[in-house]
Records
---
Amino acid sequence: MMMSHIKIVRIPILPMYMVNAHLIVGPDGCILVDAGVPGSEHKIERALAKERLTFKDIKLIVVTHAHVDHAGSAAVLREKSGAPILAHEGDAKHFSRETPMTFCPTGWVSRLFIKTPFIFQPYVPFEADIQVTRQSVISLDRYGIPGKIRHTPGHTAGSISVELESNQALVGDLVASGILLGGLSEPHVRYVRLLKMTLTWLRVN
Ligand SMILES: [Zn+2]
């Protein structure tokens, strides 16, 4: 599959790029990576419209982890699009709101974010339709996107990342709070640095 057919659209959810969702637009529709805070569906609808797409063109909703700024509108968007939600089992009890989510602010962005009212918003609970288990890697080929979903725990137990064959990566949050949990090995830290670089690339494209 030609990578030139893939376009990544950033959807700013909060000002100053504190929180973003992304659309990966392929030839047969698109994948939404993260769903923003509750009420983000209008912003996402506008971003879709700019690409001449509607909610119905969303083939998959990837929720990178259970924090409200990434999972907040997932249930509503599933209803509007009919697309399945893909998420990791490690955060399942948070998606269903059985267990309250914790925050571990390590960078200035998250310290700022934790001061906003958004963080305390409850969101509509949901269960993932496609649950990523343990270390399993999920191919996105069937959605027309050459790439994979990989488990990248650290920020939360169930954090996942999207890696495209073009070596671009989309991760929910780069704050490596896993360091505080003692969960990051040195190669993992290098990996996070690489992801930061690719995200910077995404910002200018
Ligand atoms: Zn987070």
---
Amino acid sequence: MPLLRLERPPEWSTDAAPPEPSALLAVKKPDVTRHADTADERLAAFGLRSLADLLAPSSLVIADDHLLLDGEYTRVLTLADLPPVVAAGWLNGVLAEHLAIDLSMHIRPLEGGAAASALKLKSWRLGGALNDDASNGRPIDNHLTTALEQIEGLRRGLARREIALFSVGLYLRLRASSRANLDELTQQVAGLLAAQAGAVLVPRLQQEQGFRACLPEARDALQVLHTLDTGTLSTIYPFVPSAPRIPGGILFGIDEQIHDLVELDLFDHRVCQNANVGIFAPSGGGKTFFTKVLARRYLLMTDNTDIIVIDRKHEYRALCEAMGGQFLRIAASSPHRINPFDLPPPDQRGEGSVLLDHIQQVLGLLDVLLAEPGQRLSLGERAVLDRAIKEAYQAAGVTEDPATHATPPPTMGTLQAVLDAEADLGSDVGRATAASLAERLAVFTSGSLAGGLLGGHTNVCLDSRLVVFGIEGLPEDLWSFAMYLIAGCVWQQVRQWPDRQRLLVVDEAWLLLQHRDGGRFLESIVRLARSYGLGLVFITQDIKNVLQDARGSVIAENVFTTLLLRQSGKSQQQTTQTQQLVAEQFGLSAEEQRMLGAAQPGHGLLLVGPWRVQLHVIASKAEERIAMTAPRERQALAAAASRGGGA
Ligand SMILES: Nc1ncnc2c1ncn2[C@@H]1O[C@H](COP(=O)(O)OP(=O)(O)O)[C@@H](O)[C@H]1O
Ligand SMILES: [Mg+2]
């Protein structure tokens, strides 16, 4: 009976060259000669069963391109060519098919010094060839320059010990029940790798060595090796989870690498630590398109998720009309009011003073409203306002005693009255400041904007499954303030009734983030949203500003799901700077950067915690009609639908 030795012989170490493998059929019988003196003892020893006897196959046929092991056909393939450009987990594409494949990797660190001198020689040769071309007036060969750049990059990395080199053997063992199935499986695997521009090879007359290389013996008898640097090696690691696919999740799009659906539920705590989403791309990348499609799917597929949108350009109106949502047009003449003095519900942990905390919130809001563009209120102005807000609450009968919090709060009108009184009667220093603040506030309480958003007690309520606040009708310098005010009102109502799941979409969120208080407020929402069943969808095209901003980068880090769409803008220099920032913030590989630089609208990279998916956002005709932003596109789609009877 043929026996296999599964344990590694003690004399062999990774430093020495592996010993010549013995043929599998060469029977490794127990060494009976050492202890057995008589023929009978020897025969008795042969009669004992060892573990190896039990494990070993009863038959093995070695053919030139496969083995037949106990009736099972098996073939070892080697990876002859690695794909030229790879993204992390690329081998997943092959493994995700759940074919009968075992993957075997032999990784051996190489000493940097030896590699460095070989690289130096290569670099000289390439440099020499390029110089020769230049001096003889021949055109520059791009292949040579790219190779030289890569080699120089490697040498730099090696010298700084940022990268190491590895010798890597990669083998795939296929299993099938018949020869025909084995050939078919081979074709399939070769095809999957060819799709990634890699190539496999069937080692002829070396199947036995290949089989050994796939045994858990840590011995590479086949020795088809590749020299790889750390970065490339890490992309081969096959256990990076690929597309998150949560049964019953919402369709996000298609994973372009493995052509599978990406389904995810942002509120599934087993997968997503929080439901916050960050969407970063320059204008036209497909941010709003994706968000509208996602919102529609949440409304249709779930019955416990509400969507609230702060819409700067009234782009969500079509969605609102199609889904029977509530569109609140916020403008000087509109009847919708939000009173910033509304008190939030008491803190769940019962910490802090509700009134004092909220006064800080109102102060932050008024800072955005009353300060000169790009500036903040002075310390003196903040002190006067702080006092005035407290007095306004007192005038309305609201104190720190929670029993008084049910009384109707003051309004902007109350604050105006307090400031006016201060301007008339206050101390010399305070009087001038109060007068100046009162004058600026008067525009919103008795001036042209008096009837609008701040004109009285709150009358907007999130009682519809989709509520869109359209702020386009407000003067441009009030957009940031309006976003802040609306987000504050939504946050209060969410905390008051945390029984539902909600997505709060802030499109063009940089407008809010550029003010210190607005940024702080958004950051606190991102941190606390999860406890109240809220997910903030943070959308921005000002990626550079957001990522360079301290609060912006905290927000980017604290959203569990990030969608990066096409990352190329108008000017080359700006694009490169932004791309570098994005690459650093999200740890993108060179290939991922290249992919994002050239992506079409609706194509990008979805990062969900540890997952990385090359996403294509797909939409049905009905969804496209709602999600297309350009009026011309929407008209064309509507016309096509009426001709064809709808989609
Ligand atoms: N997933 C997609 N499929 C098809 N077209 C898309 C997709 N995403 C974006 N587009 C096209 O790009 C245009 C701009 O998209 P939009 O979402 O408004 O960009 P952004 O909000 O990033 O500025 C859309 O009107 C549409 O024509
Ligand atoms: Mg947009």
---
Amino acid sequence: MAADKTLACRDCGAEFVFTAGEQEFFAQKGFSDPTRCPACRAARKMERMRQQNEAMSAPMGGSFSSRGRDRDRRGGRDDEYDYDERPRRGRW
Ligand SMILES: [Zn+2]
């Protein structure tokens, strides 16, 4: 079992606890250790959401969300190829 870690926030320098449970969660998701305290992380998340909203209303923006959509679409296409091949094999 991992032990709780005390980390220093990169933004405000405050110490915060990176608990064993959080470490497990981060490892499962493939994330690296957090560099900011929960307060700064929440502030940055708010900032990112505000930027995304601005990007969505701007005609040239939205590259962050459209990239995710492309990945989903590509995954769907791969599934369709599998289904196309199956009936062809069944005729033999
Ligand atoms: Zn902080």
